[in-house]
Amino acid sequence: MEELKTHYDYIILGTGIQESILASALARNNKTVLHIDGNQFYGGNECSFNFSEFLEWIMNVQKNDNKAKQSTTTNDINKFYDSYHDIDIKILSGYDIPDNEPEITNRFALQNNKIAEEFLKQTQTSVEKDKLALLKDLIKDNRQFYISLLPKMAYSRGPFIDLLIKADLGNYLEFRSMEKTYIYNNDVFENVPCTKEDVFNSKQIKVIEKRKLMKFLTFVMNYRLEKESYEEYKDKPYSEYIKTYKLNPELQQVILQAINDSEEGLEDATTEEGLASTYRYLKSLGKWGNSPLICPLYGGGSEISQAFCRSCAVYGGVYMLDQKINSLEFKNNQYHLDCELKFTGDHLISSIDYLQDQSNIEITDYHKAIIITDKPLKKNIDISIYIIPPNTINNNKNRIMLIQQGYQANCCPKSKYIIYICTKATDTSKEEIKNVIQQLFEDKNDISEKNKLDEMEGENNENIKKDEEANDNNNKNDDDDDDDDEEEEEEEEEEEASKPKAYISVIFKQSIRKQKSLETKLDKTTLTIIDDMLPGISMETPVENALSIFRQLHPEIEEIYSKPQEEEEEKEEKQEEGQKEQEEQITNENEAVEEQTQ
Amino acid sequence: MPPTPDKEIAATFKLLLIGDSGTGKSSLLLRFTDDTWLHPDEVSATIGVDFKVKVVDIDESKYKLTIWDTAGQERFRTLTSSYYRGAQGVILVYDVSSRATFEHLNLWFNELDTYSSSQEVIKMIVGNKVDKESSGSREVSRKEGEAFARKMGTLFIEASAKTKTGVKDAFIEVVRKIIETPSLWQKQQNKTPGTIHMNDDEAPQGGCAC
Ligand SMILES: Cc1cc2nc3c(=O)[nH]c(=O)nc-3n(C[C@H](O)[C@H](O)[C@H](O)COP(=O)(O)OP(=O)(O)OC[C@H]3O[C@@H](n4cnc5c(N)ncnc54)[C@H](O)[C@@H]3O)c2cc1C
Ligand SMILES: Nc1nc2c(ncn2[C@@H]2O[C@H](COP(=O)(O)OP(=O)(O)O)[C@@H](O)[C@H]2O)c(=O)[nH]1
Ligand SMILES: [Mg+2]
């Protein structure tokens, strides 16, 4: 085996998206890179889990939290679990217990069922049969779940997509368009109009409002050319500037809350910031489908990290996961890392997870929830976003954002959905999230009602259901665009009938950590600490962060991904020349092949 | 030569190589796709190899193969999940002059079962470096290799990336087996509608909505 290098230009700790982008960029520019993660998986805080891993993560967060409460210190450098706290688990009650369980022989199924039981033992007061049956049912499709700790999407035009294309990562990633955005208003989620068609077709917006809205949106598309027209509002609140367009309060909410990618909405943004944010959103419309956002499949964050990591590896980067870091020291102008093996490096890039001195960091907490349901929030809609503006459900203080991903996002088995909820933490945010969950989801299987129905309608019921499903599918395939409005009306009636069931809902607090100030960022120029990614929907800020760090490290490199691609093209040409001859040989040799192989 | 037009391609298959570092995976790939052999001191030459594309003719149809190399991520078993995703054929390589690499095949089978999307994936075990037999350094007999492959229900061949022995046969046999298993690839050929791939960048609906 080829000797493994022990000295590297860069040692990178953590495989979050930003660290992985840097790893790829450095390797592509002939820097030697050793990339390490303390976890068994890629992605750091942007990781995603299958169902059993998710249960294990919950158990670990609980254990870690208890440990922290007893202030037992660990000597593990990896602080991954320290950013998750205060986890609450609720499991649907009244789930049908099968009369006779099929015998299970598959060792993985056995192991997964054990995890489910262990999970109930640790997190619930007792192991109830209905809950165990439910978990076992979910864990049957274990590997079809990709549950993300930081679900992200990407603008279809912007630095993230530019980077993917430049870095040529198209072969590793797949996306789907986000279908729709909704905003909570008068106790229902209303579709947010974003394309011209949406605006014109909308029945919720009056004609006169439509004109005003179009005027505003058209202005934003060109706002940078018309600086004079907003100059005096530049540093004033965006909300005030918007008022000058005389839009009704609902549409003002749409602009401030829904059509942007900020963490908390644009309520407190300046006009300058707000316009930039609205512009980024509008700019991405119409490239792929009707929405500006595309959703990475298979859980997103972790996939994106892995794509960049592979591209780093292709250019020589060395990867080690699941590393317990025994020590990390800076001496003689080098970093000395002691993990499974010993290494040295000239530079260290470290996720904040591995920062030994955690005293100089600033923490912003978010309250989040992850819910697995049997139904989408809106009928026939899979990948979607739901915005709950302040003061709309039981006087919620801050904006609450929901992201829904299902089978279409390759995150769930068929007819399961994951719903992520996120809001900035306040003294009431946890209650607010609970209220939202209560408002939108069912937390128990109502057996009595179901039995009644079964008795009354018997088999008929089944048939009707099937017909309905078939119809829905037809509708969806035929013409998505034209019938939107009609469909929606039907939808809302149906939804009244039954809310999605929350099979499992997990509420927790997540700390987003950031270095306090530049002076404390250490005097060594060879150390770069990467702050946590914010939970906003899009990928643009982290990409820009990573690229700007790269430019600081290597101001001399102009085009990060330029050279290697040219080389590749040359190689390809050569390859093609040789191809024809070889093909002929292969055909001739086919018979020989059959004799030789088994 | 211009690239083969897509309409002449009967199907596209993804193949991948796994096995311990140093067993000759990259060498087998280069031998098969470019018919080249790198001197052991030219190691850096495989840097930058992500996957290779090759079109092969089998029974008068053309098949496009994208064959993925590990990018060295096999060394500490940190292959990324997209590496395995959607593969129809897997070539598991050991070095006939190193018993440890043969014994580690078990671990590679485990890894494969954990990550690969379909259990039907065609697997081929390749005992590489048979040219070293002449210098007396063989540690795993052909019989042993065959027996293990039989036990695992996979194809088997011995090969040498250095002397070309068995290399084409290994790849072509996997492809033949894939062709014989239409359930493995026919549904995957028509990508799920609505999936966006960056490679076909500009999608139909251009222009800005505003
Ligand atoms: C040698 C070998 C090793 C395997 N290793 C794993 C493993 O490490 N982990 C594992 O979960 N499965 C493993 N499997 C199972 C195999 O990958 C799955 O059966 C396959 O993916 C098809 O799954 P299925 O949904 O059809 O359900 P089945 O194959 O019927 O699986 C039944 C149960 O096993 C679980 N399961 C299946 N495959 C996996 C998997 N790869 N990882 C976790 N759970 C799984 C499923 O979630 C389900 O609960 C292994 C199989 C074999 C033969
Ligand atoms: N003698 C001999 N050496 C080989 C053969 N194939 C590969 N090697 C050598 O084995 C070493 C590792 O090969 P490489 O292709 O890099 O292995 P990988 O790590 O599996 O990709 C290199 O020094 C190759 O020259 C072979 O068939 N015969
Ligand atoms: Mg190699």
Automatic annotation (TrEMBL), chain A:
Family, similarity comment: Belongs to the Rab GDI family.
InterPro entries: FAD/NAD-bd_sf, GDP_dissociation_inhibitor, Mrs6, Rab_escort
Organism whose genome encodes this protein: Piromyces finnis
Highest taxon of source: Eukaryota
Principal location class: cytoplasm
One GO CC term, this protein: Rab-protein geranylgeranyltransferase complex
Region annotation Disordered: where it falls in the sequence: 448-502, 558-598
Record's compositionally biased regions (Basic and acidic residues): 572-583
Biased composition (Acidic residues): 478-496
Keywords carried by this UniProt record: Cytoplasm, GTPase activation, Transferase
Name of the protein: Rab escort protein 1
Keyword Cytoplasm annotated: yes
Function field: Substrate-binding subunit of the Rab geranylgeranyltransferase (GGTase) complex. Binds unprenylated Rab proteins.
GO-annotated biological processes: intracellular protein transport; small GTPase-mediated signal transduction; vesicle-mediated transport
Gene3D superfamilies in alphabetical order: FAD/NAD(P)-binding domain, Guanine Nucleotide Dissociation Inhibitor, domain 1, Guanine Nucleotide Dissociation Inhibitor, domain 2
GO molecular function ontology, one term from the record: GTPase activator activity
Pfam families assigned: GDI (PF00996)
TrEMBL record, chain B:
Record-linked SUPFAM superfamilies: P-loop containing nucleoside triphosphate hydrolases
EC number: 3.6.5.2
Enzyme class: hydrolase
KW Endoplasmic reticulum (keyword) present: no
Reactions listed under catalytic activity: GTP + H2O = GDP + phosphate + H(+)
Species of provenance: Piromyces finnis
Stored Pfam families: Ras
This protein's name: small monomeric GTPase
PROSITE patterns in the record: ARF, RAB, RAS, RHO
Coiled coil (UniProt feature): none
The keyword Protein transport is annotated on this UniProt entry: yes
PANTHER family: RAS-RELATED PROTEIN RAB
GO terms assigned for molecular function: G protein activity; GTP binding
InterPro entries: P-loop_NTPase, Rab, Small_GTP-bd, Small_GTPase
Any GO BP annotation: protein transport
Entry keyword set: GTP-binding, Hydrolase, Lipoprotein, Nucleotide-binding, Prenylation, Protein transport, Transport
Protein family membership: Belongs to the small GTPase superfamily. Rab family.
Region Disordered: start-end pairs: 189-210
